Amino acid sequence: METVVSGIRSTGKLHLGNYYGAVQNFVKMQHEYNCFFFIADYHSLTTHPTPENLHGNVKQVLIEYLAAGIDPERATIYVQSDVPQIAELYLYLNMNAYLGELERSASFKDKVRAHPDNVNAGLLTYPVLMAADIIIHKATKVPVGKDQEQHLEMARTFGNRFNRLYKTEYFPEPYAFSFSDKLVKVPGLDGKGKMGKSEGEGNAVYLSDSEEVIRKKVMRAVSDSGPTEEDQEKPEAIQNLFDLMKIVSTEDTFMHFDSLYNKCQIRYGDFKKQLAEDMVIATAPMRERINEIAADTSYLRKVSQLGAEKARESASKTIKEVREIIGFKHF
Ligand code: AMP
């Protein structure tokens, strides 16, 4: 059975981008593959969470994984820092990761632009840690959103380089995976780019947002004064709202508003109201379960212990073999 690995950075609540880009696929894949889904708390250190925030953020992602329907009996759910073998593999891979290729990563360049005061080495080597996350379980499929495509290519580069260097075929090649024919990119509500946590207030809709908050955010989403010509191309902000509708609404609803837009008869008030209602419906089952699961501390402890054990078992086997390949020996 093929192995699947994916994770979400523990920077707090999950948004619709995380859900439709990644977690929704996790839930489907757990029935068909040997799955490892983790909470990336090592990765979250690049933005320097305080010790007070760190655990709460990890807990929130664990709760939301479970609320979304990942079954800890089927898939291995674990916290990245419970598996220090990942950090060891990261160290080995770093020895053969080069400054030039790391600096060329699009997400590194974005981060440098957004936070010029915090360009740390962890940020630079983020794709190396991500490669370690994946190849530690020798995974071949990685359910991620479109923004991670380049990182997957780098994971293949680092795995292949290790193989070449040590004349082995130890690591298989991992590929980004989505059930649809394309990787998903969920746009934000601010009229430009993707939905993300660091993109500013009001851009993201969270799985844990209340119905009122979702309605308020969607009604405030950036739009324009409306189309002036029939069948005109949609500007980015409007296209983004339609892309969101395509994800959360039925095909009929989408076609209805698309045709009103094309005939210049659309009323953005009605359009947004419908979009908000469909987001409320799509997230309702998870919203309810989030509160239930959050209250059950002993269940969360059990899930994280079970996951840590299973993930460590798989990771220790890889590290033992990798150490032998590299040439570490005991006296
Ligand atoms: P991150 O929050 O950066 O750790 O991302 C975790 C997962 O969510 C990755 O698989 C991303 O590709 C996915 N993701 C985050 N934002 C989006 C988005 N706006 N559209 C699609 N996938 C996303």
Explain the overall architecture:
The chain is mainly alpha-helical and 331 residues long. The protein has 2 domains: 3-183 and 297-326, HUPs (Rossmann fold); 197-291, Tyrosyl-Transfer RNA Synthetase (Orthogonal Bundle), CATH 1.10.240. Helix content is 55%, strand content 7%. The chain has 14 helices and 5 strands. It has helices at 16-29, 41-44, 51-68, 85-94, 99-103, 106-114, 121-124, 126-135, 149-165, 211-219, 236-248, 251-262, 268-294, 297-326, and strands spanning 3-9, 34-40, 76-79, 141-143, 175-177. A 3-stranded parallel β-sheet has the order 1-2-3. A two-stranded parallel sheet has the order 4-5. Strand 4 (141-143), helix 9 (149-165) and strand 5 (175-177) form a beta-alpha-beta unit. The longest helix is centred in the C-terminal third of the chain and has 30 residues, at 297-326. It starts with a strand and ends in a 5-residue tail after the last helix. The mean pLDDT is 96. The protein binds adenosine monophosphate. Residues 8-9, 17-18, 21-22, 144-148, 184-186, 194-196 line the site of adenosine monophosphate (AMP).
What is the element layout, followed by pairings?
Elements: E1 3-9, H1 16-29, E2 34-40, H2 41-44, H3 51-68, E3 76-79, H4 85-94, H5 99-103, H6 106-114, H7 121-124, H8 126-135, E4 141-143, H9 149-165, E5 175-177, H10 211-219, H11 236-248, H12 251-262, H13 268-294, H14 297-326
Parallel strand pairs: 1-2, 2-3, 4-5
Helix pairs in contact: 3-13, 4-8, 4-14, 8-9, 10-13, 11-13
This protein binds adenosine monophosphate (AMP).
